[in-house]
Amino acid sequence: MHDHSGSLTGLAIVILGALACGIAMRHFKQPPVLGYILAGVLLGPTGLGLVDNRDNISTLAELGVLMLLFVIGMELSLRGIKEVWKIALVTTALQIGVGVGGMLALGYALDWSIELSLFFGFVFALSSTAVAVKMLKEINEQNTRVGQVTIGILIAQDLAVVPMMLLVGSFGSEGGTGSEAIIKVGFSIAFLALLLAFLSKRRGLQIPLARSIGDNEDLTPLAGMAFCFGAAALSGIMGLSAAYGAFLAGLVLGNSASHKVMIRQVAPIQSILLMVFFLSIGLLLDAGYIWENFGLVFLLVLFVALFKTAFNIVLLRFLGESWPRAFISGALLAQLGEFSFILAALGIGAGVLSDDNYRLVVSVTVISLFTSPFWLFSARRLHQIAQLGVTSGRETMRLTYGPEVNAIRRASLTLQVFVATVLAKLGKPPQEPETTAEEPSKGGVAADHQDSSAPDDTPETDDAIDSAVKS
Predict the structure, then answer these.
(1) CB 114 within 8 A of CB 181
(2) For the whole model, what pTM was predicted?
C-alpha cells in the first residue's frame, strides 16, 4: 500500500510539473512540448531528482511515438501540398542529400562507420514541425505563401522520416545495411508512394465498423487507438517498423469519411501520450555531460542554427522564392526536430550510437528546440521588414538585430558610468571618461554607428519595426 501511494504521489508530481511548465511556455508563446521537456529536466536526475527511474514511463513514451505518427498521418493534407510539392520535395531531398553528404565526409575524417554518418545526416536534415507551425501562427503566416512553402517542406520531412526510421532500424540486423534490409526499405517506400497516389484521388473512404461506431464518445477514441496499434502490430510482425504501420493507419483514417470525428476524439489521448514522450526526453538530458562538453555542444548548436538557416535561405531563393520569404522560411526551419529523439532511440537499439553520442544528440536537439524563442523573434522581425519592402540583405540584418545591439551598447555605457560613480564615492580616482561623457551628448551610440548604406527613411523604418514587434 505504501509503494502504491508513493507511485501515485510521483505521478501527481510529474503531471503537475508538466502542466506548470507547459503553462509557462504558453505564456512565452512557445509550444507546450518545450515545457514538457523542461519538466523532465527539472524533475529528473540532473534536476531535483524526484523521478529517477525512466523505465516506469518508457512504455507510455513508446505509445506516444506511435500516436504522434498516427496523428501526423491523419492531419497530412495531400491537397495542401499540391501547390508547393515541387519546392517541398526538392528542398527536402537537397536537405537530406547535403546533410548525409556532409556527415559522410566528416565521418571519413573522424573514422566513423557509414551507419553512424547516415544517422547524423538524417538528424541534421530534420526540423521541428511543432515549433515551426507554432511560429507560423505567431506571425500570422500560416495561410500565406511563406506558410504554404514551410508547411509543405515540413510535410515532406515527415514523410521522409518513415524510410529514415526503417533504415536506421535495419542497421542492427546481421550484415548491417545488407540486401535484405535494402529490399525491405525499398518495399516500404514503394508501398507508401502507391498509397499516397491512391489516397490523393480518393476521398471519403469507408472504414470497417465505422457505421456501427458512429460518433460515440466512448467507442470512437477506442476504435482509433485499436486501428493505430493494430496496424503497428501488423507492421512489426511483417518485420517492418511499428511506427511505419501507425503512420499508414493515420494516412488511411485521414482520408476516410470519419477523419474529422476521429481526430477530435483521439486528440486528447494523443496529447497525454505526447506529454509523456517529451517528458521522458527531458529525463534523458544529462546536464553534467553538457557542462563537461560545453564547447562541443555549443559549437554544434551554433553550427546547426547558422548553417541550416543560411542553406535554407539560399536554396529557397534559388527555387524562386523572394529574399524576404526565403529569410522567414529559413529562420523557421533552423532547429532540429523532435524526430531526432526517435531516430536516436532506434540508433541505440541498433547499436549504432554509443552512450556519449546518444547524449550528444539529445543535448544538441533539446538546446536547439529551446532556442526557438530567438528564431521566433527573428522571424517576427523579418516579417515586419518584409512588409516594409526592404530587400537588401545587409539592411535586413541591420534592421533585424540593430536595435538589440544598440541596446546592449547603451547598457554597457550605463554600467561603466555607474562603476565610475561608485569608485569615486569610495575615494578611488575616477577613470578618464573617454567616450562615456561624450557619446550620449552626440545623440547616443546608435547615431555614431549609423549605417551609411541605409536609406534616408531608416529612423522611420526602425520606429515602424519596433512598434510592430512590440504589438
Answers:
(1) no
(2) 0.69
